[in-house]
Amino acid sequence: MSESLRRLIRDVPDFPKPGILFRDITPLLANGPALREAVEAIAEPWRGKVDVVLGIESRGFILGAPVAVHLGVGLAIVRKPGKLPSDIRQMTYDLEYGTDTLEIHSDAVAPGSRVLLVDDLLATGGTAAASVQLIRALEGKPVGASFLIELGFLSGRERLAPVPVHTVIRYD
Predict the structure, then answer these.
(1) Catalytic annotation on 159?
(2) Could you say which of 23, 37, 59, 157 is catalytic?
């Protein structure tokens, strides 16, 4: 299954800057049967184990919403600063060169909720780890993280431990 999906991911060299090989999922998103297959593969290990899906801006929204529908649960979102209109919690985290910040509505995750983190890509794990910290700050329980793609050579999975990680396609 993942091989048929892998063929729909376009490699774009030197984007967004020289030396980066960007994994473009837009051809996969444009293919209805492949999109359905990807959503089901992202969601399936978590059936009956979560109360809410947390999608990370922005491709995590694209995949997180249908995963939430597939699992029959709601969707919460994590955004970049200044995009959420109500009371928020923030998490600033380190990047290779500098810092970044994520925000979530203070009422996005009810205390004790079992939360599944969903995004398109797991690379170094910094954004996902900050999102897990936001879940915990709201007293939610991060029960898992599910990604369409994992860049295994960047070891992002290790930054999420002990949260279980599921990926559909892995590049080593």
Answers:
(1) no
(2) 59
